[in-house]
Protein: 3-oxoacyl-[acyl-carrier-protein] synthase-3
Organism: Fodinibius sediminis
Amino acid sequence: MEDKIHAVITGTGSYIPRRKVSNSDFLKNTFLNNDGIPLGKDNEETIQKFAEITGIQARRYAADDVLASDMGAEAGEQALASAELDPEKLDYIIVAHNFGDVRADNPRVDMVPTLASRVKHKLGIKNPHCIAYDLPFGCPGWIQGLIQCNYYLRSGDALAGLVIGTETLSRICDPHDRDSMIYSDGAGAAVLEGRQSSTPVGILSHSARTDTEEQAYYLKMDSSYHPDHNDALFMKMKGRKLYQYALTHVPNLVKTSLEKANIGFDEVAKVLIHQANAKMDAAILQRLAKLYGYDEISEDIMPMTISQLGNSSVATVPTLLDLVLRGKMENQHIDTGDVIVLASVGAGMNINSIVYQMD
């Protein structure tokens, strides 16, 4: 069989902030409805119900002097060291995020210069032919970055790319909105390199979709629920609609990506899905299994970090992958030859899925 170029992950890295924020830290918040009226229940009950639905017990926030580009550069540096790749040999740096370098003392979007340019600068890369650009694509941004890098590598036009997902969601959430307890900060990264192989390896297939007719504003920026904050914009979510959208479309999209690779669900070792909501992710996996005729499936197939790390948007999947590959998640491992699925859903509404075989 003729050798072809395949995109292979050769290194991973992540940045998990040290500041741990537990659910009890929200007892002091004043939670309001979208009309500015208090919820009508005490915070302890609100927090308990939140934990039951999302599975989140704690999350991580970046230190006040740490920006998204700082975390991204650190995760990228780890990935490059893991890959044993000279940074000057990178052809692309793709940084997925949604809000830029939001500062703790001035929570406004800051995207000039691009975060990718900032990361390249922080890594000290001098090569002008290392192209750095940003990818705002909602929570699926990091996976979409892998999809784009895959095309560059398979074309033969590039040999190596660094794909980073980094976000400080804690700085753009409304403290008076109970959904603020979902969000967290962090970064994850992977180095992809082109590899000649006569048998498929690395990224085997992908699938993606964008739905906007009714779904475009399920996630959007809007005013605080507290009237005193109306001059600022915060991230708002139509949680129930997003939940139903994900359950309706993500399982079928993952199945499509598996079919493209001629891979059966019984051949999948792990499903690494965006850590948005533990209950939602479990329901997505269950619906995916039913598409293949399975009524029950082992929980080990889907590693989860959301209970302690929360939802860090584009950083959740690469962080999860890095922790598993480094042996930092109990009873979780990925071996040579294993087929894994990387999948995400988020603002846009966007969904994507990659089928990947470990080299």
About this structure: The mean pLDDT is 95. The longest strand covers residues 185-197.
